[in-house]
Amino acid sequence: MNLTLFSSALRNGDEILKRYTCQGVDVSPPVEWYGMLTNT
């Protein structure tokens, strides 16, 4: 089983934008999950 987490707000190797931290607006980035088992 492979669990994949995707966010259009984050890029591999980049730093997390300040708006998504407690030093910024402290909001969660948009995320999508793939590969979860049914009824998880």
Automatic annotation (TrEMBL):
It comes from Paraburkholderia piptadeniae. This is Raf kinase inhibitor-like protein, YbhB/YbcL family. Keywords: Protein kinase inhibitor.
